[in-house]
């Protein structure tokens, strides 16, 4: 069980697949540039990005994906202008309110990972409603990283474990990789098999830093509002074409070396 959520914790094994499919994670990048190229306000790019998310979630199972984690709002995004932060907060509400019925009907479980502190009461209400309504769904898991940062999540996990030690519920010697992973906000899902970043950028940007240890990275030169199931399918195809060794070597490589 996860010490934080009470959920059955799946082993965050490298290369593991969740349920009937892969765990794909996406850094949804390029909304602002998409809008700028069209002479539109950035807010319209973000709204177009919500439609791209709907398309991608709907088409993910056909691409062989059983868990999808998307980067919606980072802990660093608070540095953006107040108007844009407000718009980004509103997008989570808009997405849930416009798509929750379909997600619930189609067996999608929604989890919001990241810090809840600092979020307004209306955003918290939307998060709690989405998680409560879909809690018993098991066909597909959608995780939205919101007010999330990989470094912040690692620090929070370390703090949670330290608090257990202070209360006499654990010892420092109890800490290993699996135990530490169970304190992360992502503990209810296996580690990602594939991490995708859109828009042509080639960096992780503080996303799933612990969990990405053995993930395959795919960078796609498409702005997020133009994204859809065909792009996710292409990323999965590239993932499947790779030889994943997890620090080891293939048997035929051993024979050659010998």
Q: Could you tell me the radius of gyration in angstroms?
A: 19 Å
Output the CATH class name: Alpha Beta
Distance between the termini: 44 Å
Looking at the structure, the CATH topology is: Undecaprenyl pyrophosphate synthetase
CATH homology group = Decaprenyl diphosphate synthase-like
Mean pLDDT: 89
Tell me what portion of residues adopts beta-strand conformation: 15-25%
How many domains in all?
1
Q: Structural class of the helices, strands and pairings?
A: alpha/beta
- Amount of helix: 40-55%
Kindly report the spatial arrangement of strands forming the biggest sheet: 3-4-2-1-5-6
Which term fits the overall shape?
A: globular
Task: Count all strands and give the number.
Answer: 6
Largest sheet: 6 strands, parallel
Order of helices and strands: EHHEHEHEHHEEHH
Q: Count the DSSP helices.
A: 8
Poorly predicted runs: 4-19
CATH architecture grouping: 3-Layer(aba) Sandwich
Pfam family, one: Prenyltransf
InterPro entries: UPP_synth-like, UPP_synth-like_CS, UPP_synth-like_sf
Cofactor: Mg(2+)
Binding site for Mg(2+): 29, 216
């Amino acid at each position: 069980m996860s010490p934080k959520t009470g959920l059955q914790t799946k082993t965050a094994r490298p290369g593991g697949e969740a349920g009937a499919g892969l765990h794909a994670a996406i850094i949804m990048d390029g909304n602002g540039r998409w809008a700028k190229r069209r002479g539109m306000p950035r807010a319209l790019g973000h709204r177009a990005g919500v439609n791209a998310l709907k398309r991608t979630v709907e088409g993910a199972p056909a691409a062989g994906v059983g868990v999808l984690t998307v980067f919606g709002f980072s802990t660093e995004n608070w540095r953006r202008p107040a108007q844009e932060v407000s718009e980004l907060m509103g997008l989570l509400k808009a997405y849930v309110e416009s798509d929750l019925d379909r997600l619930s009907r189609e067996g999608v479980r929604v989890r919001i990972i990241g810090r809840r502190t600092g979020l307004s009461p209306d955003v918290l209400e939307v998060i709690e409603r989405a998680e409560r309504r879909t809690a018993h769904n098991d066909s597909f898991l959608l995780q939205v990283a919101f007010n999330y940062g990989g470094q912040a999540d690692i620090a929070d996990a370390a703090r949670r474990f330290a608090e257990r030690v202070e209360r006499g519920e654990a010892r420092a010697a109890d800490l290993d990789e699996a135990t530490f992973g169970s304190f992360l906000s992502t503990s209810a899902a296996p580690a990602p098999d594939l991490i995708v970043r859109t828009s042509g950028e080639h960096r992780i940007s503080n996303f799933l830093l612990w969990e990405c240890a053995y993930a395959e990275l795919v960078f796609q030169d498409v702005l997020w509002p133009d994204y859809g199931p065909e792009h996710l399918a292409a990323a999965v195809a590239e993932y499947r074409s790779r030889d994943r060794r997890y620090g080891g070597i293939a048997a035929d490589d051993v024979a050659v070396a010998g």
